[in-house]
Fold each of these.
Amino acid sequence: MQWEWVFLLFFLPFTFLGMGWQTAVLGCVLLLWLLRRWATGHFVPLTPLNSSLLLLLLMVLVSLYATFDIPFSFGKVTGVFYGVAIYFAWADWAGRSPGKLAWAVLGLLAAGWGVVAVSLLGTSWPHKLPLLGQVVAAVQARAPAQLLTLGGPDSGFNPNQVAGVLLWVAPLAVAVAVTAVWHFGAVRRRWRPLPAGLLLLFLAGSLLGLTGALVLTQSRGGLLGFGVGLLLMAGLALRRYWRWLAAAVVLGALVVGVLVQMRGAAALTADVLAQAGIPTGEEAALADGINTLNGRLEIWSRGIYGVQDFPFTGMGMNNFRRVVHILYPLFLISPDTDIAHAHNHLLQAALDLGIPGLIAYLALWLGSAALLWRAWQAAAGQPQAVWYRALVVGLAGSLTAHFVYGMLDAVALGAKPGFIFWMLLGIVTGLHELTANS
């Protein structure tokens, strides 16, 4: 069953189609699990995250009872079951050998490139950040017209969602590419010169392409998450120089204190918000409410009301966008605005699956962090220690970046590109298995 992931990736396009095709995908997933039971004695591989996943899938089924429109929720339900199947298949493959783990990482980077390619065709790039927006406008002015008209705010991809998906991949690409360049001699000894050169070219291109596309989205939450992820990665990579890092933090705090003293807290805050593209004063009153801080606070408050009203079952997957304007009217945002999610991934998980579903979702994050910590410790002294620890750094950076992004925005559970998240968790589990058993 080690090639199960090949069949699952073949099914991926059908998860984007209607309920009939999605039902067929679910049937194929269940069939693969039955075949694994027949071949190995287990429906799915035994991994440290199985308990959390069982509770999550149980709450997905419970949400079908709670939803007012099963066809409207069914796409998200299919996405979760399909994503969990991808996780099991990817973890099983990645945990078999260091070579298969490397191919699993390259597969994840290739999936990131797929997101970049599709988003270039279907995203209307925003001009949120003043300086970067001017650069984007100049590039768009010279781009072929069909690239600009294929997407759009209504029919294309949301740049914030693109940023959230890329955060699962971009920090990992940074860690792997930097390590490959730094230890290129070892790569060249393991591979022949031509394959080693092609590998380095792919990794360097992934670093530039994925991070470049992330910057183009101008997603404030995405860039904030990416920055926090890079800081964590730097702290892990430069842990031996913690005194210098601490000194840099103290120096930065002193600089901020001096600026506040000279400029004034209110004026400095207004300047920072202006550079971040967040409207203030009269501009905030004229801006689209959903993109303002007050608008987000109002959405979060409505999300909390929803969790209070549906604490055990949730309101059903994907239903918040339909329910919010009916049960919890907003004042700053027009009732014609489609609020696809609660702009907070923890709040959205609770709205979709109830508090038990939120517990299962949080357990996946905490469990993944524990697996990375164990892998970091177990890698010490192993022949592949440099590469294993580089993967820990990159995976920790990707998870941290997306978690921070998810406090301001969300890629909801079951979303179509969500399979990349499950691939990432599969690599985390596979890496843990390899380091624990070496």
Amino acid sequence: MLHGFDVSMKILITGGAGFIGYHLAKYLADRGDDVVVCDNFARGEKDKDFQELVSRPNVELVICDLTKTEELKKIGTDYDSVYHLSAINHTELFYKIPAEIMRVGIMTTMNILEWMRKQDRKTKIIFTSSSEAYAGALKAFGQLPIPTPENVPLVIEDVRNPRWSYAGTKLIGELLFLNYAKQYGLRVSIVRPNNFYGPRAGIGHVVPDFIERILGRQNPFHIYGNDTRSFCYIDDAIRQMVAVMETEKTDGEIVSVGNAEEIKIIDLAKKLFDVANYHPEVVIYDSPLGSVKRRLPDLSKLYNLTGVRAEVDLEEGLTKTFKWYKTHPQI
């Protein structure tokens, strides 16, 4: 269903109190849609920004734990679209609580798909996967196309390494979504985010981690690995995800979303040093076990199907993000 300027839609966002969920809910509410935000607040925050969002007349907060089937009755029915974002995403936690990451990721996905079977077949649901899903293929096979298209093999490099707990839930989630669609006639799309960043991203990811340490005046400044990544500002990310949702061309498709600009982690740090006007000594350590040396998405499919590209350049996005964290030191 395409969005019309004179017609509001009813939209469900699972995991809606998290980083992506908050910005997605705000974007949809700003344009006039009726948004239901579902979260159990195991990770999401009821901060001032979020409380202001859910106080709007067209935004409803439903507190529920989607790992429990009986809780799904709280979210109601009759949605035009559903964004399934529920997950625990925090690199440090991949190592600390891998079993819980898998339990939440797999059970919420199974339960929301079973719920979807009872909905109108016009309703479309997006699964938010991750570039982590194909990260193991690079090390397993020694190479991946750079930029990387969506049809590369999905590989868990080492099942004993808890680093792959999160990636495992995304690989399984993609299988579940595509096979539920095939067996039960559901409208689904899968998006693979690539390093989204921006205000209210919490901690535990590279950009907010660097900002936190810059604000704390860490010197020498520690960088673990000198891998390359692409970083997509959250406003661009949301526009891309909504574009994937709102065209029938993406039904049944896996679409990478992000930015096509590749950068070394040391150069990312230097850009943030310039933004903060702080230039410490830098010490580079080895990458954590399981870290991928290069990751850059091929975004040609996204553009061909939606016509949407990233517009916010890295310097602008980092400046906005740094200013937000500087004024929100409690985060």
